[in-house]
Design a protein that fits this description.
Helix content: 10-25%
Number of helices: 2
Order of helices and strands: HEEEEEEHEEEEEEEEE
Distance between the termini: 42 Å
Strand order of the largest sheet: 12-6-5-8-3-11-13
Structural class: mainly beta
C-alpha cells in the first residue's frame, strides 16, 4: 500500500515539475518590489522628449537584457497615476552608449494612486506587443516623463536628451536616472 502511495506521490511531483517548466516564462527587467518615486521629466520645461534606458533591473540583477533572440510578447509595468504614454524601444548598450535596434509600439498606461504610495501588492499593467529582440538587447522608452520609476539617488538607468533615434550610431550620455519599473516577457519558442 505504501509503495503505491509513494509511486503516486512521485509521479505527481514529476508532473508538477514538467508542467512548471513547460509554462516557464522568460522575463527580463524589473521585479516590482519597490515603491515608486515621483515622475521624472525629460527637462525643466516638461515638453521635450527623452529616452530612458533600462541599465539595471530593480531586484533582478543580471536580468536587464534579453536572454535570447526572440519576440517580446508582453510588456509589464508598475506606474503611478495619472495616465501616461511612451514609445517602446529596444537598444544595444556598450560602455554607457546606446544604439536603437527598434522603435514602437506606443504604449498608453493608466497608473494607479495605490502604486504612488504603495510598498507592496502593486497594480501591474500588462500590454500585448510583438517586438523582435536579440540576445543582449535592453529596453528603453521615449517620453516627456516617466511615472514608472524608482529613483533612490539616480544612477541605474541612463537618460538621453534628445531621445535615441533609429539609424544613429552609438550615442553616449552622462545623464543618470532611476530604475525603470518595467519588464518584458519573451514569447515561448516554437
Amino acid at each position: 500500500m505504501w509503495r503505491r502511495t509513494l509511486v503516486g506521490a512521485f509521479s505527481a511531483g514529476l508532473l508538477g515539475i514538467f508542467a512548471t517548466q513547460a509554462s516557464g516564462q522568460e522575463i527580463f527587467g524589473a521585479k516590482f518590489t519597490h515603491q515608486l518615486t515621483p515622475p521624472e521629466f525629460c527637462t525643466s520645461n516638461h515638453s521635450r522628449m527623452c529616452s530612458w534606458a533600462l541599465m539595471q533591473a530593480q531586484a533582478n540583477a543580471g536580468h536587464e537584457k534579453a536572454p535570447r533572440d526572440g519576440m517580446i510578447s508582453k510588456i509589464r509595468l508598475v506606474a503611478c497615476a495619472p495616465r501616461g504614454s511612451f514609445v517602446l524601444q529596444t537598444i544595444r548598450v556598450k560602455n554607457n552608449q546606446a544604439k536603437v535596434i527598434s522603435t514602437g509600439p506606443v504604449i498608453n498606461y493608466l497608473g494607479t494612486k495605490h502604486n504612488c504610495a504603495g510598498t507592496k501588492n502593486f497594480d501591474i499593467e500588462e500590454f500585448d506587443v510583438n517586438v523582435p529582440v536579440r540576445q543582449g538587447d535592453s529596453l528603453a522608452v521615449i517620453a516627456t516623463q516617466v511615472r514608472f520609476l524608482y529613483n533612490a539617488s539616480s544612477g541605474p538607468s541612463i537618460m538621453f536628451d534628445p531621445p535615441l533615434a533609429e539609424g544613429d550610431a552609438l550615442v553616449g550620455t552622462d545623464l543618470a536616472s532611476g530604475f525603470l519599473m518595467m519588464q518584458a516577457e519573451l514569447a515561448p519558442l516554437p
